[in-house]
Design a protein that fits this description.
Two copies of one chain form a homodimer. With 310 residues, the first copy, chain A, is α/β, with parallel strands linked by helices. Chain A contains ten helices and 13 strands. Chain A folds into two domains: 125 residues, 2-Layer Sandwich (Nucleotidyltransferase, domain 5), CATH 3.30.420.40; 168 residues, 2-Layer Sandwich (Nucleotidyltransferase, domain 5).
């Protein structure tokens, strides 16, 4: 098989595998903790991980998924989850020289979209998008079978579409963004605000001082907690509005949804989104919503596909 | 120069010119009325026009802009402004055989976007979009220097993004779409509704029973007519919200605006859009709004560029 090395650079670990980008099958596995001592040590560690995985140099290309903003040429301009990443680093340039292999670098959510497109729920679709609903809401766009990252690497940031003008403040500082309503963190902040204001609710009761996890959201829905049902309805509206806008603008036949919140709430949650009057748009009745396949090692597989496409 | 035939198929006329797709310069000009007797006669007429323009067969490729929905393979599925176009017609397939030349077919607004991208206000930008505010609001997307039309040819339909959930009815039948607020027809309908309800306004006074033209809108703004100022503020909000969503989703550095309403209201209108809190988004401060260049024969030039890109 034509092998490519996929690397998933995370905030806590670096994982690398040898991947067949056509089937998505992987072999080998090297995993190391992500250094906390800055990008230079992180790059050193990636070199070690790649050499350990493939000492015989079977693979000529390396794809790397990074939890940050990546320009089209592979410069990581922002990487808040990795310690000391204060200035842009030309990861593709530096690593291709040090590894003596071709290196492609992409945002982790974007390469996840490529994995869903090629070997997941989006197989066979030329155009599609993914939306991952977790702490925040991220997304990736695949048009004409290629990832659309944008020049600054910021394409697909569907969480920052304004769905409630003048509404709740988003983590990014602006107001009324979809993520402030549909992301777990935005939902948690609002649940705690209402709880403190006297609108007691199951979410805060279940979580106590801890994080309001997706499983607590599912439990509170089951218990028909009033505040939870209201917040979920707002999340549905926000997702419907933003996904509807995206589907209209890009004429998408498919949007694949995943992430902790979606995994918990399942198909019923998707059905509510597509049935919402906020889904609106023009011809959106043909835009299907599907659950992501939750592929094993989607990060490394997607990164390898990115390298294969480059 | 490498010449390509650009054809602009309109509801009333068919215009063809020989175009250099790199400079946008044109020569020759054949113009005929669009037959009212159905697509078959329209195609016959296009053949005549092309042969009249280029009897010596200097050009091997023909690009055609059509006021309707065009699939990626050049099938025109919907063309409401041309009489008798009741079923999908494989314009590219039929005409390439009859003309013995390569034929590319695109939506007229989309090929207009290509013209602005290559020889208009968007020169030098790899990614950009156009928004044309006329009777309705249409748009075109250029990503990575290529037109994004969508499989069904419906990409770029920014007028049908939901900016006012549950709001005014759009021409397409759904509710709260941007076009219902920013398009001339939506604005006219609302001005007449308010006038009839007792909220007398300059727009209806100036237009009488005729169409509320863009020039009347400009006059009513100058007269500081209360209803007009309210309607324009709503149009600004609707455009800001939809363009902001698009710019965020696609990481766009530039959006070019044109069409009757924009031509009349000018740069001040654009400044209000980009200053609006509804522009929102994530990093949209770097998305520039520019007036379209209002190129001569943008339709034929864009159609030729489409053919050159194919």
């Amino acid at each position: 098989m034509p092998e490519i090395i996929g690397v998933d650079l995370g905030g806590t670990k670096i994982l690398a595998r040898l991947v067949d980008p056509v089937t998505g099958k992987s072999e080998g596995r090297v995993k190391k903790p992500t250094p906390k001592s800055g990008p230079s040590d992180v790059l050193d560690k990636i070199v070690t991980v790649v050499d350990d995985l493939d000492p015989d140099r079977r693979a000529e290309s390396v794809g790397i998924g990074v939890p940050g903003l990546v320009t089209e040429s592979g410069v990581v301009t922002l990487c808040p989850n990795i310690n000391g990443w204060d200035t842009p680093v030309d990861v593709a340039g530096i690593l291709s020289e040090r590894l003596g292999r071709t290196v492609a670098v992409g945002n982790d959510v974007n390469v996840g979209a490529l994995a869903e497109h090629r070997v997941g729920a989006g197989q066979g679709f030329k155009d599609m998008a993914t939306v991952f609903v977790g702490t925040g809401v991220g997304g990736g766009l695949v048009l004409n079978n290629r990832l659309v990252a944008g020049e600054r690497g910021m394409a697909g940031e569907i969480g920052h579409l304004t769905t409630h003008p003048g509404g709740r403040q988003c983590g990014c500082g602006q107001f009324g963004h979809m993520e402030a309503y549909a992301g777990r963190a935005g939902l948690e902040a609002e649940a705690r605000r209402r709880h403190a204001a006297g609108d007691k609710n199951e979410l805060v009761r279940l979580a106590g001082d801890g994080r309001i996890k997706s499983s607590f959201i599912a439990k509170a829905i089951e218990a028909e907690d009033k505040v939870t049902l209201e917040l979920i309805e707002e999340a549905v509206q926000a997702l419907a509005s933003a996904i509807g806008s995206m589907a209209t603008l890009l004429d998408l036949p498919l949007v694949v949804l995943g992430g902790g919140v979606v995994d918990r709430l399942g198909q019923d949650f998707l059905d509510r989104i597509s049935a919402s009057e906020y889904f609106g748009g023009f011809g959106n009745h043909v835009c299907e919503l599907r659950l992501a396949k939750r592929l094993d090692d989607a990060g490394v597989v997607g990164a390898a596909i990115l390298a294969a496409d480059s």
